Amino acid sequence: MNFIQNVPFFSIMISMFSGIVSSILSEKWAKRLNTAVILAVGVMSGILLLYLVREGIGSYVFMMGHFPAPWGNEIRAGVLEAGMAMFFSIVMLLSMTGGRKKLFDEVEYTKHNIYYILVDMMLSSLLALVYTNDLFTAYVFVEINTIAACGLIMIRQNGRTIEAAVRYMIMSLLGSGLLLMGICMLYDLTGHLLMSNIKLAMAEIMASGTYRIPMLITVGIMTIGLAIKSALFPCHAWLPDAYGYSTVSSAAMLSSLVSKGYIFLLIKIFYRVIGLEIIYSSHIIGILFIFGLCGMLFGSFSAIGEKDIRRMIAFSSVAQIGYIYMGFGLGTQEGMVASVYHILVHAATKSLLFISAIGLTDVSGGSRSFFALNGSGYRHRIAGIGFAVGSLSMVGIPIFSGFVSKLLFAKAAIINPTWKMFPTVIVLAVSTILNAIYFLKTVIRIYTPEKPSVEEEKGYYSVRLDEQKLYTATIILFVILNLILGMNSQPIIHLVETGLANFA
Amino acid sequence: MSRLIPEDEYGKRPVGAFHQWMDGVRDPYTGNVEVRTDVRQEEESEEQLREYQEEVVGVIRKVHDTANNNQYTLFRKFYRVAALLCCLTLTVMLLITVAYLPPVGSTDNPAHNEVAAKYIEDGMQDTGAVNIVTGMILDYRAFDTFGESNVLFIATCTVLILMRNDKKKGRGSAEEEERRDSFYEPKSDRILQTAAMILVPFIILFGIYVILNGHLSPGGGFSGGAIIGAGLILYLNAFGFEKTERFFTAKTYKWISFCALSFYCIAKSYSFYTGAHHLESGIPLGTPGDILSSGLILPLNICVGLVVACTMYAFFALFRKGGF
Asked: With 0-12 CB in 10 A as exposed, 13-18 as middle and 19+ as buried, what is A388?
């Protein structure tokens, strides 16, 4: 075994170990360790990705311990997993650096090192969700992810965040509970926890017709559990508060990473546990499709009605999650590729939007109201640029990343014409217009100059670029990431396709 | 031959004390147990109560305007009905599923397959642990268990965020909160203290026994740690924070959990690494049944036990005082 193949194991272990070590470190060192670990994981995953692509290895299994798979634990890495791990660590690093200043303003200084523990643990759980090949391991790390997310929401302590964390916890625990019940019943029906073994047993059960009904209910329960956790439309009530009031790094990470980790696990379950044929022939996929479409519309409607800019961005997440589930619901390979690509696009764009929005509200007297933002794009230029890029990307303007995924969705719907084609294309178009309404009206507002007398009266100030170097660099990197996803999409789509082909 | 003794000397004897207690002359608690009567009426005037209520209402109002919100009232009605319907649907659906699941205990269930068979047949030989369950969780599937102990660790971290009171002095500080919280409790309760004096050493010894015998008999780190934690909490309740803080503070907690988890992490990383590369780990398994056997399982059990015990105590202390 090549030494590079140790990367998944190393990255999970060092991120966990750094969390443990951070508990005795001071805030400063915990911060440095956190940055170093995220960087190291990103670089290592990049090397692994290069290695896998160059050697043409589809995927390989790494044994966690002395015992082979059905008895011991194992993890499995392929192109898609390595790419996801790299992408997640890039987005996490940028989210952390972009919100660093705000963390000092909003969180008690004595609790900063706990924040870094949570982030380290969150990274390790995301990596484990990405790499695991065992359903129970997945569940354990879903737990870590949930608890860490609750902590990230409520570390900024005011009434709103506590309420948001309680809501998040209740909904998330409902999701975890359903997932756990599903795993238990799946074990009862198949006698395995390892994904590939369950798939074999599952195919047998479906062919012979024994336990067909409980199997379908089990699959449904697990899907709904993960859908609740990733805020699919009717179960999104926890989302706007959780993203809207937590400190900005948390909001960026929650929207771009936590929900995506669950979605990635769901894809993994579809491919490796249930098998694509079974899931595509069941009605579950149709339900996901309909709820995805509803989410695309209602998320946007709520966002249009929202006056608080952070909550508006949060509601936009509901719409974007809807896109991803709609892609699953198409029930084709192209739809799945489009969904995975949209995971990347949304992760890169939504964190950019959250982080640039905080710059805009800061120069508007800290007011989050939409009406106070007049001319803030001039007062904080880099944040204005970041917000504009993020908005254009979410609306789907060419050269920005959102355009590519929308194109992929439309293509996926048209290539295989079923009854799903027309609803998809129509809702896609309507949703794009709705996106344009709320994002572009904000962009126009931040670039509408405010009268100097008003600015003076309200005590607004301007930020020069060299005042916040870290923040500026973060936004620039985010914009570059967006442009790469938007203009250099072919190789990435190709990687996603090969990754998915080797996924099962 | 009986002899008449003076009244006050008779009262000091056990028989006399019993008679006095029966007659209602003396209460053995008085003077020995500190009892505070309910002094709420005198301490908190009407005004203070009203202030307190306004504070509660104010906090709620700060989050949501509930009084003048028609949508909210409507939503609450809808919510109750919808919640009931959702729960009923889920319950009925799950009950139906249960009816279709394989019958409990039947030998040809899918769960009776080669996985369970190997655990039972080769478990002792592979892991060196007589207790198969411990062998499973700490050797076959040690990665999951490592995740599980990190769940505890991170749960304490989130409770720390929520409850830890970093204010050292003055109004709202940890000390003051604790004093207010335990105001109506008797301070040094003789019964509790005596019971704790007798019970705590045995509880903790039993916990240590359960941990150390985790690989030999039912038990292990999680259950033993929970027992030790319960013992510590009993001790804290009986003797207060002054006594426990002599040997267990936030610093102790930090270092114990750090050492235990890092040992777990490093030891298991080593074992995972050698396992994945098919190398000999070089850790002797010993004779199954001995106390010093089964390789890494015993030290890992101790680590898990320490983490669990500290977590339980930390939760209690944080909820009680906001720090320890």
From this structure: buried
- Residue A333: count of CB within 10 angstroms of its CB: 15
Contact A17 B265 (CB under 8 A): yes
For residue A186, give how far its alpha carbon lies from the nearest alpha carbon of chain B (Å).
Answer: 10
Shortest CA gap A479–chain B (Å) = 33
Cα separation, A381 vs A377, whole angstroms: 5
* CB nearest to B100's CB, from A23, A141, A213: A213
- pTM value is 0.89
Contact across the interface for A72 and B119, Cβ inside 8 Å? no
How, if at all, do strands A73-78 and A59-64 pair? antiparallel
ipTM of the complex: 0.89
For residue A22, give the chain B residue with the closest CA.
B258
Lowest-pLDDT choice from A16-20, A139-143, B19-23:
B19-23
Contact between residue B134 and residue B215 where contact means Cβ atoms under 8 Å apart: yes
Dist. CA A172–CA A168, nearest whole Å: 6
A62 touches chain B (CB under 8 A): yes
In what helix (H) or strand (E) does residue A67 lie, and over which residues does it extend? Answer: none
Least Cα separation, residue B35 to chain A (angstroms): 37
Inter-residue contact B119 to B132 (CB < 8 Å): yes
Distances (CA, A) of A47 to A1, A61, A79, A498: 16, 17, 11, 17
Q: Answer whether residue B231 shows pLDDT above 90.
A: yes
Give the residue among B12, B1, B322 at the shortest CA–CA distance from B180. B322
Interface check for A18 against chain B (CB to CB < 8 A): the answer is no
